[in-house]
Amino acid sequence: MLIRFLYTIGIYIYGFIINLIAIFGHKKAKSWTKGRRQQKNIYKKLTPNDRWIWIHVSSLGEFEQARTVIDQLHIRYKDHKILLTFFSPSGYEIRKNYPNVDMVLYLPLDVPRNIKKFIAAFLPELAIFVKYDFWFNYLYYLKKNQIPTILISAVFRPNQYFFRWYGMYMRRYLKYFDHIFVQNSISKILLEKYLILNVTIAGDTRFDRVYEIAQNTVDYPQIEKFISNRFVYIAGSSWEEDEKYIYQAIKKYPDWCYIIAPHEVHNDRINKLKKSFKNSALTYSELNDNNFDMSKVNNKNILIIDTIGILSHLYKYADIVHIGNGFGKGIHNILEAAVYGKPIIFGPNYKKFQEAIDLVNLHGAFSFNNINQYLEILDNLYNDKTCYNNAADVCKNYIQSNVGATNIILKYIDDKLKETW
After folding, report:
1. What pLDDT does residue 421 have?
2. Is 210 helix (H, G, I), strand (E, B) or coil?
3. Which of 75, 219, 293, 376 is deepest in the core (most CB within 10 A)?
4. How far apart are CA 412 and CA 256, in angstroms?
5. Where is 181: in which H helix or E strand?
6. Which residues are 55's β-sheet partners?
């Protein structure tokens, strides 16, 4: 009780700090506070007879892990409404109009008075948390109100605070979940060591999502004309450090076609990137203009993607995919490329991503630390067809062998929870 009281005080302090820095113009903090203020009266608009399923995600990455489950719940449970909550503005702003849910909200701050109002208003028949966004007061009150609560796509590591000497109190809250679906056996073994036994290895729902995308691919005729049978190098979510390497590839292989989708697509970033390639580049917006003269493509070999939402479909056109931010905090999503059976390259910071570790070990993906390693990888993939084909097969087979997490989770919901509805 004392620990939860201290935790709650800490949450109040956290909320106060966010509100304070919002006053001084911090953009993300302003969105965080403004969004929560605007939804204070939302409870008055709810209909008492509505039956809610609640999914909570931290931000956009966790949403993508929950997406296939959300979409299937939308299809299967027509007599229920779906509530989606976000903690972060970056996820909320992009998915606040997601069509397969009935309401999208910011998660109210994790303090008792907020939670009591929230639960009384929605009375969710099922609560789903994703990966590792844990809010201990919410878990306490969900358990207290006997609301079935599950955790999906979870990953646990020995160095997490749950498993340190000071994490014993927080670890007990993991037992408040009715069931935990983990991505790998390491997580399951670790939980069972601490007598958390309601655990199933389901895998990563992102595999289901990328597989679904690949089965419903979108064609881009203008890009196909731009490619024009050339060898295609696609850089997804690139940062400036990645582009230093791409410049060297362009020098060595000027006949290739390069499609670069930078991580940020604001005007300054796009204009600076285009200028760096001088007269060799054009943007997707230019290419996609109905009045664009395709004869201008003849002397261009670089296409800069200046919009969001199409990259996952573009990977099918690649021969080699370069995933960005390997020299930053960590690489972006590699599964979207692997599903098409494309060899993948990236910088050295990939060790937090199990799929990247797996594919490097299987020789479907390749990491580089310097320009010599980078060019050697490109040479091998371009000139050695056996090396290339093996890498492509590894990536495609890896995805196919890991599909199915969504069905495992939904079976649990159908078999174990639907009977109480």
Report:
1. 57
2. helix
3. 376
4. 48
5. strand 179-182
6. 84, 128
- How far is 154 from 139, CA to CA, in rounded Å? 16
pLDDT in tens, 222-269: 999 999 889 999 999 999 999 999 999 999 999 999 999 999 999 999
Which residue, 308, 257, 391, 292, is CA-closest to 95? Answer: 308
The amino acid at residue 351 is K
Q: Which part of the chain is CATH 3.40.50.2000? A: 217-401
Alpha-carbon gap, residue 101 to 95, rounded angstroms: 10
Gap between the Cα atoms of 68 and 211, Å rounded:
11
255's CB contacts (< 8 A; 6+ apart) are 230, 231, 301
pLDDT digits (tens, 9 = 90+) for 159-213: 888 888 887 888 889 999 999 999 999 999 999 999 999 999 999 999 999 999 9
Q: Which residues of 133-170 are buried (b: 16+ CB within 10 A; e: fewer)?
A: bbbbbbbbbbbeeebbbbbbbbebeeeeebbeeeeeeb
Q: What is the pTM of this model?
A: 0.86
Query: CATH 3.40.50.11720 in the chain, residues?
Result: 48-203+404-420
Helix (H) or strand (E) holding 182: strand 179-182
CATH topology of domain 48-203+404-420: Rossmann fold (3.40.50)
CB-based contacts of 299, cutoff 8 Å, min separation 6: 279, 280
C-beta pairs of 73-76 under 8 Å, 24+ apart in sequence: 73/410, 73/413, 74/100, 74/101, 76/410, 76/414
Query: Which pLDDT band, with edges at 50, 70 and 90, does 22 fall under?
Result: confident
CATH of 217-401, one of 1.25.60.10, 3.40.50.1820, 1.10.150.130, 3.40.50.2000: 3.40.50.2000
Does residue 72 surpass a pLDDT of 70? yes
- Specify the pLDDT at position 25: 74
- Structure-token pair, residue 42: 């939302």
Run of H or E residues at 401: helix 385-401
Say if CB 32 and CB 46 are below 8 A apart.
Answer: no
